[in-house]
Write a structure and sequence with these properties.
The structure holds 2 protein chains of 2 kinds.
Chain A lengths: L1 H15 L3 H34 L5 H11 L4 H12 L14 H37 L4 H11 L1 H17 L2 H7 L9 H11 L2 H33 L1
Chain B lengths: L3 E10 L2 E11 L5 E4 L6 H9 L6 E6 L9 E4 L10 H11 L4 H14 L15 H14 L4 E5 L7 H16 L3 E6 L2 H7 L2 E6 L2 E7 H6 L4 H9 L5
Helix pairs in contact in B: 2-3, 2-4, 3-4, 4-5
Classes of the chains: A mainly alpha, B alpha/beta.
């Protein structure tokens, strides 16, 4: 118990003292996960809209596959990306293994199915409501999909945040493809794992607190934005 | 574009016949009211005419010149508003028909003025009252300058005041030379707004008469029973 109290105190000192090493780790985490969520959204939102609005052979199988991929274990994604990027792998020539770029790639693959599958559901529900009206106005499938993406924007924000939460909290994928190299690829989750096993509880705990507050703060902001927007736009 | 000619049109869902061999011609001029009990197929017939549904059998052809262009619009029982301003909802329809941006705003403002919604033009459409939303739906359809306007029970969910407003707007649209085709279950509304009645029962077109003759001396037993079954003061 006493140990936890000491660790908490030390964690507070690191956080409020703006410890340089801590800041570096937090910033890299944000950079990697935000880039991944941006890429996954740019690819996943249109994909979700296309599957939500489109009717084509194999659509149901694709939906099932995407839903299943939401539960992808991060270590498996890490392993696959590792194999692709390793020196002997098909993408080995780019030499990005053990760099932040590899971590971005792994996290993008991890959360793309989440963004695509959840946005597909939101868009398809909206499509039920809008379809006749949009067709009556002469909107084709692409126009309809774009209209629905814009009209469901408040729900989609929540989905993108869920993706960010998943990316920022996972440890398996970035550990494998990043290698947890100090000052290069060490992010919050890999640092927590390492410091815990080393017994440096204050740093681990400090990072844990920051990670939690970050996710909590983002979700509070998103909830507030969504509520305000829905009150305003109906 | 008119006349619209239906020949032996059927529509079936899972083997159940909703529309049963309907042949008719809808020409310019008279306001056409599609009347009939619940489940008669009124809304389905209208969606077939508008092109939202494809017939299972028979043919639906626009005989007039300009048939290829979308010069028809539809207003639904429950209006679907996009999550944007009232003005932007009208402009959206105009955008889909290829109207230039500056022209869109001018025309949208004009038509909102005409339906009495100028004061709420910049309010989000989804927070308007039910009556205002239906007037907005009429404005959105009217702005397209349709040759034919289909109305599917446009006042079914409205209070008497809003119903009166909607009927007035339909009159204005008609005065501009637009053909009106409307379903209703209100005999009073059919008398007020109709010139001719298409009476539908169990998917079949049972009777077609001018409105005075239909109510004074229906030729079919089904229509007679339908008229007498209705409350007289509606």
């Amino acid at each position: 118990m006493n140990e936890i109290a000491v660790a908490l105190g030390e964690a507070g000192r690191l956080i409020f003292g703006l410890d340089a090493k801590l800041a570096e780790i937090v910033l890299l985490s944000l950079r990697v996960s935000l880039t991944a969520v941006l890429l996954a959204s740019v690819l996943g939102l249109p994909l979700g809209a296309a599957i939500g609005v489109g009717r084509f052979p194999g659509r149901q199988a694709l939906i099932v596959a995407l839903n299943a991929l939401m539960g992808l274990p991060p270590v498996v994604v890490g392993l696959l990306v590792y194999l692709l990027l390793s020196r002997a792998g098909p993408l080995g020539q780019f030499g990005i293994l053990f760099t932040p770029a590899a971590m971005v790639a792994a996290q993008t693959i991890l959360i793309l199915p989440i963004v695509a599958a959840l946005s597909r559901q939101v868009i398809e529900d909206a499509w039920q409501e809008y379809r006749e009206q949009l067709q009556s106005l002469g909107a084709g499938p692409i126009t309809s999909a774009l209209t629905l993406l814009w009209d469901t924007r408040f729900s989609l924000v929540t989905i993108v945040l869920a993706g960010f939460g998943r990316a920022a909290a996972e440890v398996g994928a970035v550990m494998i493809v990043g290698g947890n190299i100090d000052g290069v690829t060490r992010v919050m989750t890999t640092a927590i794992a390492l410091e815990s096993s080393k017994g440096d509880l204050p740093l681990a705990l400090g990072l844990g607190i920051i990670l939690l507050s970050l996710v909590l703060g983002l979700n509070a902001a998103a909830y507030w934005v969504k509520e305000a927007a829905q009150r305003r736009y109906g | 574009m008119l006349p619209l000619v239906l020949e032996q049109v059927t529509f079936a869902v899972n083997g159940r016949l909703i529309i049963d061999r309907v042949s008719m011609e809808v020409g310019e001029g008279p306001r056409t009211i599609i009347l009939g009990p619940n489940g008669a197929g009124k809304s389905v017939l209208m969606r077939l005419c508008h092109g939202l549904l494809k017939p299972s059998g028979g043919s639906i052809v626009w005989r007039g010149t300009n048939g290829g262009r979308r010069r028809q619009a539809m207003v639904f029982q429950r209006p679907v508003m996009l999550r944007r301003s009232a003005l932007a909802n009208v402009a959206y329809g105009l955008k889909l028909t290829g109207v230039a941006p500056r022209e869109r705003e001018l025309r949208a403002r004009d038509v909102l003025e005409a339906v009495g919604l100028a004061s709420v033009a910049d309010r989000p459409a989804r927070v308007l009252s039910g009556g205002e939303q239906q007037k907005l739906a009429l404005a959105r359809a009217w702005a397209l300058g349709p040759e034919v306007l289909f109305l599917d029970e446009p006042t079914a969910n409205l209070d008497p005041g809003a119903t009166r407003d909607v009927e007035t707007i339909v009159g204005q649209i008609r005065a501009g030379g637009t053909k009106i085709v409307m379903t209703t279950h209100s005999l009073g509304q059919a008398k007020r707004l109709g010139d001719e009645i298409l009476f539908l029962n169990q998917g079949r077109l049972v009777e077609r008469s001018p409105v005075d003759r239909f109510f004074a001396k229906p030729t079919s037993a089904e229509a007679d029973a339908f008229i007498r079954g209705e409350v007289p003061w509606d």
